[in-house]
Description:
Layout: H1 4-22, H2 24-30, E1 34-38, E2 42-47, H3 50-59, H4 63-72, E3 77-82, H5 102-110, H6 131-142, E4 153-157, H7 163-177, E5 182-186, H8 187-199, H9 204-211, E6 215-219, H10 228-243, E7 247-252, H11 264-270, E8 274-278, H12 283-297, H13 303-316, H14 321-338, H15 344-355, H16 365-376, H17 380-384, H18 390-406, H19 411-417, H20 423-439, H21 441-459
Parallel strand pairs: 2-3, 4-7, 4-8, 5-6, 6-7
Antiparallel strand pairs: 1-2
Helix pairs in contact: 1-2, 1-4, 4-14, 6-7, 12-13, 12-14, 13-15, 14-15, 16-18, 16-21, 18-20, 19-20, 20-21
The structure holds adenosine-5'-diphosphate and magnesium ion.
Amino acid sequence: MVKKNDYESLWEEALLSIKSEVGETSFARWFSLKFSGDNDKGITLKVPSRFHADQVTKRYPTLIEKKLREFFGTDMAVRFEVDENPADSENTAPKAALTAKPAEQNAQKERAIPFNELYTFDNYIIGDNNEFAVSASMAVSRNPGTAGDYNPLFIYGGVGLGKTHLLQAIGNYIHTTTSNKIVYTTASDFITEFTEAVKDRDTKAFKRKYRKADLLLIDDIHVLENKERTLEELFDIFGALYDAKKQMVFTCDRPVTALKQIPERLKSRLGSGLQVDIQMPKYETRFAILLKKMEEYKLEINNDEKEKIIGLICKNISSNVRDMVGALNRLIGFTRLTNKKLTLEVAQEQLKDIFTSPKQSNISVDMIIQVIAFHFGIPVAEIKGKSRKANVVYPRQLAMYIARTNTEFSTTEIGQIFGGRDHSTVIYAVEKIETRKNENAQEEDRIQQIINKIRAEIVK
Ligand code: ADP
Ligand code: MG
């Protein structure tokens, strides 16, 4: 039987994960959501007000459900209940205490560390994909600010490949080995903080905080694209810290040169230190990462079964490391809830929908275009080109539609691949094909046949 306690502790783990995703400031503001109860279908969380519940839902429309699925291993509904008695509740306690582990709680009393205690170098597996990034991060951690060539350190790579973990490992290391003043923030918290300072007509405290840092860590700097005033402010902070030989580390989802709508002078400063990238790890490294995670969870499971399960996840998930860790969390959530033993069969059953999701299908947009081009007897260049002839426009729209519904690429990315078209063109194509499908029963079959052909290409 499932004990209520299990739900509560799973929710607390989900909260920790939410914290590392949204950043400290947003977390403290929106996620003091205390577990209140559960039934077969879902859990109830206490909120300070109806308004608060509405805001959380508006700002993070799918986050809670996503985390529940990850940690509970199944879809769970969330119900909010207004806390009638906030005086006795955790709402008045320091926010971080809600989810902090005992060791962390003590530290909170002295000095708030915004870092996930598990995001350390010890827990970071080194592979060909991140070797250079890790050695640069370690060098910076041992001698922050002194090696001018490494300032700033700019770490870039795709979603879920370990950038935040590495950034926090630098923070954790410097926190435990020095008394340096560390300022860690996500770019989106940085924007909020600055915007609110401007609104309150008090940017002094903001400026002081950042200029007094010995170590400045900013996660996901690409979020600043387009944010003119905040970028202006960052440029000034950068200059002050750089001149004072204070170490800065930034993470980003792309190299500096690929950043758009960021002033050239800031780009040239961001790129003036050391740029290192993180790629998708290969099989052996992925395997080692999951072994490490299993150790962290202290699961009781025999080695043979453990390796089979890890192998299963590594073979079937190719999108990124976060998705692999998510799959593992899901298994752990499921076994804790049901008290079932974790076996290969349980893993296969529990993860089959993740394995078959479009995200893991490895279909590339170019592959779709090639199959469509061949199917309709038109050159690839014409599909990507500007022709408005009906015999080209329809296959092009169809290719866009299939790309949108069978891959995880955004409409913007798809537009790019189709000869640099705007995302609105892709949206239009998707609508157009949807309408045709609704009006014509054969259309659906035809599309399915083409999708099957594309899938067959992957197997080859
Ligand atoms: P990003 O910030 O690049 O999107 P994260 O740092 O959030 O990615 O990493 C996603 C998950 O993968 C985290 O649980 C992290 O601990 C794990 N992870 C990624 N790379 C490694 C690695 N080399 N060793 C151990 N864990 C890793
Ligand atoms: Mg990150």
